[in-house]
Amino acid sequence: MTGTTGTKQPMAPPVEIVLDEPTRQLCDAVTLGRQDPVRLAILAPGGYGKSAVLDHLEQGCLRAGTPVARFRPPHAEPALVLVDDAHELTGPESAELLRIAADDRFGLVIAARPAPRPAGLNEVLGRLRGQLVLRPLDQSRIGKLAGGVPPRLTEFVRTQTGGVPGFARDLLRTLDRTGEPTVPPAALTSFQHELDRADEDVLQVLLAAEIGAGGNAGLLAGLLESSAQRVGEVVEVARATGMLGQDGALLPIAGAALRALVPADRRRTVFGRLARLQLDRGGQVLPFVRPLLGSVHGRAQHGNSDTTTATVFAAAAQEATANDPALAARLYDAAVAAGLPPTEIGAKRAEAAARAGDLDSALRLADEVIAAADAPARAEGAMVAGAALAHRGQLARSAQLFRWSGTNLSSVFATIGLLGTGRLDDARQQFEHPPANEPPTLLAGAMSAAAQGLLESVSGSPTMALSTLASSAEMLEPVGRSVLMPDSPAALGALVALHNGELAIAETLLERAIAAESGGRVLTARHRLLLAWVAMVRGDAETASSRLAAAGSELTPRDWLFAVALRVGLARRASDVAGLRRIWGQAREAVIRHPVDLFTFLPFGEFAIAAARLGERDRLAPHLRQARELALSLGDPPLWTTALHWSGLHAAITAERPEEAREEAAALAAGSGPYPEALAAAATCWLRVVGGEIDRDEVEAAARGLHDAGLWWDGARLAGQAAIRTPDRKAMVVLLETARMLQGGHVQAPRAEEAAADPAGAPRLSERELQVAELVVAGMTYKQVGDRLFISAKTVEHHMARMRQRLGAANRSELLTRLRTLVLPD
């Protein structure tokens, strides 16, 4: 504040000081004596460079020979007097400053913060004739201050510091300019002096600003226990620190300084008081409570509890549940640790855990609530447990809990569970006689429509069922994100669509559900897995694998069942027997862990075909028998049983059980509707193909029928299998082309002409032989090559024999060496 004349050097960054043009011109006029007498004020918050400007003026005056002096009473010789931190002057110093301001022989430049404003300073400022304005640095001036850094760094500095010159300078001095920019601890040390000298009220206002309450006059009045006028004065002093931006919000770097430099207990005290004040006012408390997480557990371990704090945590948890259930679960835990009885919030706590994906905790907490006769919200606890059990694949027990819960919504959920476990009469009874007269909310209406659509799927029109489920999914979108459900209308609708060959509808339903976050985090993986199933059925292995990976690895048992079935299905479609064997252990475990229900017919169908391929049919037989018994208890609804019979057909063909295959084909023929009829025609055709009875037109029609029904891969497979077996070369070419078109691949028909020698006399292979050679050299087995090219393994063997003879290879090893030379010349 008092300084020394002409000796103090400015605290300069690489570029000494960066002034805007008007400020620079005014400084030049002062130092060159063009203003007489000088009467200027520099009013700006801390960090804006007031001291640096005084240093700049002092050095300029010394260079120009203009008399200059730092303020150090008494002053006798006329000079330009530079006064720093004038807002801190009191008593004799203030009187001396007023005397100089009244004496025209002295020039005067006063630097001060806008607040506080002592009466003596106001009188001095009233005698001044101008103001030197300091503004925040823009990105360009920060670049000059830095001496040249990439724009991303200058933007980072501007964002963190708000362009406050002193803060920007300190950050630039300590910033690591090579990696991803972060605020280093060394950049925060300059705030220590500011915080040390701030009085308690100012510090509390700054801490309130950290959590967004700095502009709430009512809260601040309660926090400071002061009048509105006093609060306004304190806020102005807080603004004068420079730590608040133009909008009154705490600058990011200032927030980092508060977190690093203010003791944790002091921060918690302020945040706790603000949270309690906000709760009393009926406002949202979540922003005030976040910083308190973690501290309450330590106090609870030492026997300290606080009912008010516990209530605040519980209120914050309820606010967080919709958007961040994991945070809500932590907040409920904190509320219990602070002294709230566990059963009082048990159901809400269980719901938060379930929506965060922690089904074990959800079931434990919900069970505690259900078991406590005096616990409130036992019905809600049963709903949480029912939803969690559905995600774990325990649909029967889930339905039991939903029925016990006794609300309209739980009754609808129970209907879905009862139907899924084959109890059709109970499901109808449950749906038609809801237990209570409750408001017709959007959620209740959407889920009721979903249950109605599922009932329609087993006893009515598949088209109407799908339409009702699609409407239900759309109805749920505005509210579905914050609801815990055993399943979503979108997932159920997609299953119905998949069972009916409506892949485009399934895809749309699932994509919309993912975009709307229907069912929250706990159902996102289910939607992604069903999307992967759509791609797999279409034969798009790459997209299916990508969607499967997007579902993640933290899966509920129900989701894991579908994920394993997808891996099994993809391996089977790629003819990857080794991969199928690797995944089969997980498939066996998934089958044991997850009971069969109506909504798992697709994965169990995939397991049935794979089991036949691997000679493991006996392991799966009891589960498939359960699936058929369940379907029978529902009246063998064609929409749901068609997939079972289709997979059963292929399992029987793979296991070489012709009589069983004929039974499955007959069951398919008993169905009615476009989808069952397409599969029935294909089944009949497939059996004829396997028996060597191949009619090109029939095969083409059946394959295209499968494609139109959404089974793209199966359609291509049928055409390819027929092409392998037909003795008619012309039919083979046509069927291979059909397979190529239906699968979207690049299957080539064999060339008719024999291979000829090239001009150099070296043997030349046919196009088909080159294709076979490339795949064999790549490491494929004859079976895999045949599957890839839609020919039999025996045909691949014949190609290899002809190539060995033509190339003059003595053995297989020599043949492979020569083939590598031909297909990999580089």
Provide an overview of this structure.
- With 826 residues, this protein is an all-alpha fold.
- 65% of the residues lie in helices and 2% in strands.
- It contains 43 helices and five strands.
- Strands 2-3-4-1-5 form a five-stranded parallel β-sheet, covered by helices on one side.
- α26 runs parallel beside α28 (521-538) and α38 packs antiparallel against α39.
- Keywords: DNA-binding, Transcription, Transcription regulation.
- This is Regulatory protein, luxR family.
- One of its GO terms (molecular function) is DNA binding.
Strand order in space, largest sheet: 2-3-4-1-5
The count of β-strands is 5
Low-confidence stretches: 1-15, 300-304, 745-762
Can you name the CATH architecture of the domain at 21-131?
Answer: 3-Layer(aba) Sandwich
Let me know the largest β-sheet. Answer: 5 strands, parallel
Q: Rounded to an integer, what's the Rg over CA atoms?
A: 39 Å
So what's the CATH class of the domain at 21-131?
Answer: Alpha Beta
The overall pLDDT, averaged over residues, is 88
Structural class: mainly alpha
Number of helices: 43
CATH topology of the domain at 21-131: Rossmann fold
Helix residue percentage? 55-70%
General shape: elongated
Report strand %. Answer: under 5%
Distance between the termini: 80 Å
CATH fourth-tier homologous superfamily of the domain at 21-131:
P-loop containing nucleotide triphosphate hydrolases
InterPro entries: Sig_transdc_resp-reg_C-effctor, TPR-like_helical_dom_sf, Tscrpt_reg_LuxR_C, WH-like_DNA-bd_sf
GO molecular function: DNA binding
Protein name: Regulatory protein, luxR family
Domain HTH luxR-type: 758-823
